[in-house]
Structure formats: C-alpha cells, structure tokens
User: Which sequence fits this backbone?
C-alpha cells in the first residue's frame, strides 16, 4: 500500500486533497497528515476522515529538522505532497519573516529528510518515490498585457514577501532536481475557492461579512483580476501530476476563469440572495450597499492568468466545475457550516481583522 505524507493537511487545500484522495482511492492508500496547526490549520476540517484506519495525523512543524527526520525514518513514505505554508499575502506584508522560515526553510528541511531515506548507495533514488511541491501562480508576478498568460517558461518575478518565499522554495526544489536528480515535480496553481477556506481570503471573508451585514472591504479600485479554480479541480491536477507527470517538470494549473474582484463580490451577493430563504433574517443584511472601497494592498499584483496548456495536453487535465456551479456549492457550504465559521472567527481572528482593516 502506497503511503502519502501530506504536509499542511489541516489547511484549506490540504484537507480538500485528503478527502479527494480517500474518495478516489479508498483503502488502497495510507495518508499521514503532518501539520503544525497554526492559526490556519483546523483539525475540525478532517472530522470526516479522522477515524479511518488508513489516516494518521501527526502534529509537527516542518521547520523542525529532528521531528521531520524522525517521521521519515519511522514511516515508509512513498509520496510527499507538500502544502504546508504561510499562505496569506496580507500577512506576509505585515510579518514577512515567518514566510521565509516556513515556506523556504521548511521546504528545505522536507527535501533533505526525504532525500536521506529515498537515496540509494549509488546516488539514485528508490523506485516510485515522488515529492510534489504545491506552489502558486504568484511566483510569475503580474500581467499587464490583457492577451498575456503565465506559462511554465514565464520568468519568475514575485512581488510580495509571500510570493517571493514561494518562488524561493520552488528554486530549492529545482536545485534538488538539477543537482541530485531528486524525484520532484512542482505545480503552480491559480486562486482556489471552495469549502474549508479560512475567512482571511476574499471569497469566505465576503460571504461571512455579508451574512453579518458588515462592510465588504474591496482593495483599490476592485478591478484586479484573479483566475479562480474550484479546489477539487486543483486536487485532481495534483493527483494527475503525481501519477503521470514527468519527474523534474513543473505544471501550471488553472481553468481560464478570470474575474475582477468586484465581479466576485457582486456574484457572492447575488448568490446569497438567491439561496437564502425569504424568512432568513440574514437575507436583509445582504446588499451591494455593503461594498466599501478601502486602501489598496501594498504592491498589489494587477492580474494573474494561467495557461494550462501543458497539463491539459500532456496529462489530459481539464477542470470539471464551472465557476457558476462552484460558487453556488461554496456559498451553500458556508451557509450549512455556520458553527465551523463561528468557531474560527472567534478569538485571534477578531484581532487580526481589526488590525488588517483598521476597524
Ligand atoms: P492554508 O493557509 O489554508 O493552510 C496551510 C496549512 O499549513 C495549515 O494547516 C497550517 O497549519 C500549516 N502550516 C503552516 N505552517 C506550518 C509549519 N511551519 N509546519 C507545518 N504545518 C504548517 O493554505 P492553503 O490555501 O490551503 O494553501 C496550501 C498550499 O497551496 C500553500 O503552499 C499555498 O502556497 C499553495 N497555493 C494556494 C492557493 C490558494 O488559492 N489558496 C493557490 C495556489 C497554491
Ligand atoms: O494566486 C494564488 C494565490 O491566491 C495563492 O498562492 C495564495 O495562497 C492565496 O491566498 C491567493 O492569493 P490572493 O492574494 O490572490 O488571494 P486573496 O483572497 O487574499 O485576494 C484575492 C484578491 O482580492 C486580491 O486581488 C486582493 C483582493 N482582496 C482581498 C481581501 C482579503 C480585497 O479586495 N479585499 C480583501 O479583503
């Protein structure tokens, strides 16, 4: 039985990936979820798998060399799927150092620990071992020409401390491939949305605020463009790269779904009004009057847009979920998981929100 070590499995994409993999492979795989449970990690995300015999949670920090080496020595890990990261651009602007520590140093610790147990005496690697590094389209910087897209060959030009730390991590992975022929692949995906996303990110933040009748803070002129992908389609792409991707290659993942932020906010408002029952008191809160333009994000990238040609033509990946369906599923999920949202927005989140939005 294949053993997957998933880092950051208690976060947004990591938890969706674990569900995706158990839906697809059932008891044919084993998953070990290694997560430090930072503010972004939430074990409640994994309630649906926690009792499975082929699932294990280990609380560990990827910066902790001893702890990570021990996990690799004690478990015959076949596949590493590396999600763990500090992931929020705004936090990287106010507190960059932890981004370098987790995203860069943490990735190096993982690579080294995997190399130590996977490498044979002759310097080659054991059969079937794979390290999938989950990265972002933000490493490519910002697009100004509306006809332009990010390709795997687009030069790296990160702007925020977050994207610079992810770009650095990508380059460390590439260095392991180039130097040791280490069996790794990198995926660079566009903006994800779906269940279990922490409400510091645009979509769940707007849903949560709208339901509470709070202002909807749109940065700058609201016309920055992001390329949105339903989280399961990202998970499908990662699984395909693990199964069929060429070692040492990188693959962009994105579904040609560019939207201005203001469009997203208006879509959330109309979807909420459509789905909320007439007699739900929160329905009266939800209106475009809540939209408030606020000070722009520092160094705010204008547009991201992925060209997914390589993963589509080489591996046959195509997204399954249209944005109109995905956003409905997402809004419905948050409506049905009120307690989940209340739980993570109490405590530290309130303090974060006050600081970030000066309220
Ligand atoms: P997230 O913030 O929701 O989750 C991150 C997880 O990593 C949390 O469970 C957290 O506890 C854990 N973690 C953080 N620091 C750790 C450490 N030092 N040791 C161990 N665990 C630690 O992030 P996400 O949105 O799910 O993103 C996951 C990955 O996907 C990241 O690498 C991110 O760069 C990448 N990515 C995200 C998106 C997106 O739209 N969210 C798009 C492309 C790529
Ligand atoms: O592109 C992939 C990246 O997408 C991932 O690598 C990151 O981990 C992930 O956080 C996401 O980064 P963004 O900065 O694009 O996502 P965020 O949800 O923070 O913001 C989306 C857009 O919405 C961005 O242009 C900023 C804007 N925004 C965001 C917030 C939180 C607002 O206008 N108001 C807000 O309150």
Assistant:
């Amino acid at each position: 039985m294949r053993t997957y070590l998933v880092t950051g499995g208690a976060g947004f994409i990591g938890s969706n990936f674990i569900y995706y993999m158990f839906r697809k492979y059932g008891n044919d795989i084993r998953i070990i979820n290694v997560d430090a449970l930072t503010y972004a990690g939430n074990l409640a995300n994994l309630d649906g798998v926690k009792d499975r015999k082929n699932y294990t949670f280990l609380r560990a920090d990827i910066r902790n060399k001893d702890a990570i080496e021990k996990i690799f020595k004690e478990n015959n890990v076949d596949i590493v799927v590396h999600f763990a990261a500090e992931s929020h651009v705004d936090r990287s602007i106010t507190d960059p150092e932890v981004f370098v520590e987790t995203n860069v140093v943490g990735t190096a610790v993982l690579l080294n620990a995997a190399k130590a147990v996977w490498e044979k005496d002759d310097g080659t690697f054991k059969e079937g071992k794979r390290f999938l590094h989950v990265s972002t389209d933000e490493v490519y910087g910002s697009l100004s020409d509306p006809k332009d897209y990010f390709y795997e060959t687009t030069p790296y030009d990160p702007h925020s401390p977050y994207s610079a730390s992810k770009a650095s991590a990508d380059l460390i992975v590439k260095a392991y491939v180039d130097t040791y022929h280490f069996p790794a692949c990198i995926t660079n995906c566009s903006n994800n949305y779906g269940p279990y996303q922490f409400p510091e990110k645009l979509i769940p933040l707007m849903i949560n605020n709208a339901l509470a009748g709070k202002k909807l803070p749109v940065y700058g002129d609201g016309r920055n463009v992001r390329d949105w992908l339903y989280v399961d389609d990202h998970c499908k792409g990662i699984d395909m790269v693990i199964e069929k991707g060429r070692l040492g290659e990188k693959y962009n993942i994105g579904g040609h779904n560019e939207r201005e932020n203001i469009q997203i906010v208006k879509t959330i408002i109309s979807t909420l009004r459509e789905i909320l029952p007439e007699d739900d008191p929160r329905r009266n809160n939800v209106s475009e009057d809540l939209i408030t333009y606020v000070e722009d994000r520092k160094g705010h990238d204008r547009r991201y847009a992925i060209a997914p040609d390589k993963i589509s033509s080489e591996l046959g990946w195509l997204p399954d979920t249209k944005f109109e369906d995905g956003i409905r599923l997402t809004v419905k999920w948050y409506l049905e998981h009120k307690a989940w949202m209340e739980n993570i927005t109490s405590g530290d989140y309130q303090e974060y929100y006050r600081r970030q939005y000066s309220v």
